[in-house]
Amino acid sequence: MANQISLDDTFAALADPTRRAILARLLDGEASVAELAQPFALTVRAISKHVGVLEQAGLVTRSRAAQKHLSRIELKPLRDIDRWLDGYRKLWEGRFDRMEDLLRRGADKPE
Amino acid sequence: MANQISLDDTFAALADPTRRAILARLLDGEASVAELAQPFALTVRAISKHVGVLEQAGLVTRSRAAQKHLSRIELKPLRDIDRWLDGYRKLWEGRFDRMEDLLRRGADKPE
DNA sequence: TAGTTCTGGAACTATTTGGTTCTATAAAAG
DNA sequence: CTTTTATAGAACCAAATAGTTCCAGAACTA
Question: Quick one: signal sequence residues (chains A, B) (predicted)?
């Protein structure tokens, strides 16, 4: 039972553009802190802290290879957000002619 | 051009359980601040501020009917998050036998 | 062994956040 | 006109956040 990550932590981690950019970078494969820091006008330490936040949120795991600690993206928290969105997605996906009313008046929602 | 909402603001707004609960409540229809505050052990003012944050993030709009200001959920920022997730969704939706390698080694991603 | 590289810990700072209380204002109800 | 109701503004506070700099340790390299 390694994970018990809250949506709170995941959303908070994603609320920073630097961290989202780091995640996007990790789509191209594992990277060290120094490598991740390269595109940014921030200290390596600052990036190290960002990676720490991502790790706390379960969005990244690390494995040390020599003195390089390689970060790797983890998808589960993103899937959790996706599932949270399910509760709302039907409201914009369906072509409900009365959707306006549904949201305003709170009529019985479509099944 | 009313909206220019950032993912930053949206994710940050969603990083609070009270605010997510307010959003869920609004699926049942518009509500006043006082109504929204009812389930919580917080002051009405605190809920009013939460609604303000949601409004800043474009997740809620308000219309005042009499002295009650009715809050209503807005879906666009959620759709924006959904589209942001698109960049990652393919990685957990597809059954890529080499997905492990893709994330670790950063091999050429599937089309 | 000595030097270099990569990273995290510690301490500090400025800003933001989530909450409170008290006050002011606008509108409805008496 | 007075009172009640619903909300936001202002001031305040404690805790969290994002950044910095400096230092220490672990592991390669010469």
Answer: none
CA of B111 to C1' of D12 (A): 55
Q: In this structure, how many other beta carbons lie within 10 angstroms of the beta carbon of residue B40?
A: 14
Ordered by start, the domain boundaries in chain B are 7-74
Under 8 Å between Cβ of A10 and A81: yes
C-beta separation of B104 from A91 below 8 A: no
pLDDT for A18-74, tens place per residue? 999 999 999 999 999 999 999 999 999 999 999 999 999 999 999 877 677 899 999
Which nucleotide is nearest, taking the CA of residue B65 and each C1'? C27
Q: Is the pLDDT of residue B1 over 50?
A: no
Note the helical H segments in chain B.
7-14, 17-26, 33-37, 44-56, 76-93, 99-105
**Kind plus residue range of the DSSP H or E element containing A79:** helix A76-93
The token pair at B20 is 């997510």
